[in-house]
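Postdoc handover notes: sequence design on the structure in folder B. Input tokens:
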């Protein structure tokens, strides 16, 4: 699958999503690894198999096997971390913030790709999952790693567009039922 095949499946009322998918496919403001890793990590973060498959298909020829696994790992790891840290952020009882997380997250320390790229993927997935603590943490690392605010904004824009493609497919399925 590819972005084009994904666009073909989107309903007419998702025309803006189709156009936005074209825009990110053509965007060259990030390195190829950053861009295609975002496709994979965000695709999996949507929890929509069709979106994930299309974006993996688009990214496959642009990423090494190691980078592909790291991008998948960013989506999976943030699926866990975003739940936990969003809880810490949103709960009013400060006692929970004093307790150790006791979550295994070695991938963050050794992702197998450039740390800034991995952190950028984690940031975008955290935006999809709505974890403010994680967004702040990963944005700080990305910026300290030398990426400009425009790269952060681009990553979050990609996440928003990819998430909207999943919503469009799910809406179409409901309408068709």
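Designed sequence:
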């Amino acid at each position: 699958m590819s972005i084009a095949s994904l666009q073909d499946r989107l309903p007419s009322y998702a025309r803006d999503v189709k156009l936005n998918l074209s825009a990110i496919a053509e965007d060259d403001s990030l390195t190829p690894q950053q861009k295609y890793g975002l496709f994979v990590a965000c695709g999996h973060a949507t929890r929509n198999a069709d979106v994930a498959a299309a974006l993996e298909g688009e990214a496959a020829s642009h990423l090494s096997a190691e980078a592909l696994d790291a991008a998948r790992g960013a989506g999976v790891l943030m699926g866990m971390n975003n739940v936990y840290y969003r809880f810490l952020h949103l709960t009013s009882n400060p006692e929970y913030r004093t307790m150790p997380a006791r979550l295994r997250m070695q991938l963050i320390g050794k992702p197998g790709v450039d740390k800034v790229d991995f952190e950028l993927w984690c940031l975008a997935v955290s935006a999809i999952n709505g974890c403010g603590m994680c967004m702040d943490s990963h944005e700080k690392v990305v910026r300290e790693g030398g990426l400009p605010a425009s790269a952060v904004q681009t990553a979050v824009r990609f996440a928003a567009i990819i998430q909207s493609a999943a919503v469009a497919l799910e809406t179409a399925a409901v309408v068709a039922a």
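Context for whoever picks this up: The chain has a mean pLDDT of 95. Don't rerun without checking with the PI first.
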